[in-house]
Amino acid sequence: MLNTLKKIIISLSFSLVLIFLTSSLSFSKIKITDLENTIHVLDVHGKRYILDKSVKIKTGDYLKTKNNPAILILRNKTKICLSDNSSLKIKIMQFDKERYKINLDFKKGNIFLSVPKNSKNELNLIFSHYKINNLKDEVIISRQDRFELLNFNNKLKLNFKNKKNYNILPYSYAQIFKKENLVKIENATNISRYTNKFLKGCVNQIESLKEKKRNWNLQYGCVTENGKLVCGNRYK
C-alpha cells in the first residue's frame, strides 16, 4: 500500500513539473524595444488593449492595425511593419536555451519582416498553407485579393502543405493563386506599390535593390574556352 502511494505521489509530482515547464515554454514573453502608431491586441484570455512598450507580447496574442500602419521592434531586433487593416497572430512564443522561437501566423493585409542575419533566434512565418522556416533578412508579403511576396537578399524556401517546396530567389517577386499554387516568379523592379503601404523607415534596402540584383547576378565563375580554364565575374 505504501509503495503504491509513493508511486502515485511521484507520478503526480512529475505531471505537475511537466505542466509547469510546458506552460512556461508556451507562454514565454518578449519585450518591445520600439513601437510607432497604434496596434490593437486581443489575448488568449479575451482581454483587449492597445500595445505599448511596457507590455510584453506572448503566445496567443492577436495583433491588428486599423486605419494607420505601424512599426513594432522586438528585443531580438526583429522588425515587424504592418500596413493599415493588417493582422497577425503569435502562434508560438518560446524561450529556451537563450534563444527565442517565434511562429507568426499572418492573417490579413501587408507585412514587412526584417530579421538580422546574425540572429540566433528562430522566426517562422505562416500564411495560408505556406510556411517560411527560420527567416533571416527581409521579406514583404501581401495577403489581400491574392498572395504576393517580395524577397530581398536571401533565397527563401516556401514549404507547402503537400510537402512540396518552392525556392524563391533573391530580389524577386512571386504571385500565388488562392488555390495555393505558385504562379510566377520574376525580378523585383516596380515595388513602390508595396513599400508605400508602410511607415517611412520600414524598408531600408529598397533604394539599392536594383543594384543589388545586378550584383547578385554578377557572380565569379570559371569556364573552358579554347581548351583553357578562364575565370572571372560573369552574369548568371
In short:
With 236 residues, the chain is of the alpha+beta class. It is built from 3 helices and 20 strands. 16% of the residues lie in helices and 47% in strands.
Structure overview:
By secondary structure, this protein is of the alpha+beta class. The protein folds into 2 domains: 30-204, Jelly Rolls (Sandwich); 208-236, no CATH class. It contains 3 helices and 20 strands. The chain has helices spanning 2-26, 192-195, 209-217, and strands at residues 29-30, 32-36, 40-42, 48-50, 57-58, 62-64, 70-74, 79-82, 87-96, 99-115, 122-127, 130-132, 137-143, 147-151, 156-160, 165-168, 172-176, 182-187, 218-225, 228-235. The protein has a 16-stranded mixed sheet that branches.
Short descriptors:
about 240 residues; alpha+beta; Jelly Rolls; 2 domains; 16-stranded mixed beta sheet; two-stranded antiparallel ribbon; 20 strands; about 15% helix; globular; disordered C terminus
**The CATH class of the largest domain:** Mainly Beta
Instruction: Give me the CATH fold name of the largest domain.
Output: Jelly Rolls
Largest sheet: 16 strands, mixed
Tally of individual domains: 2
Number of strands: 20
- CA gyration radius, whole angstroms: 22 Å
Q: What ranges have pLDDT less than 50 throughout 5 or more consecutive residues?
A: 12-26, 227-236
Q: Roughly how much helix do the residues carry, as a percent range?
A: 10-25%
Q: How much strand content do the residues show?
A: over 45%
CATH structural architecture of the largest domain: Sandwich
Indicate the mean pLDDT.
76
Number of helices: 3
Look at the helices and sheets and give the structural class.
Answer: alpha+beta
| Straight-line distance between termini | 77 Å
Could you state the order of secondary-structure elements as H and E?
HEEEEEEEEEEEEEEEEEEHHEE
- Shape descriptor: globular
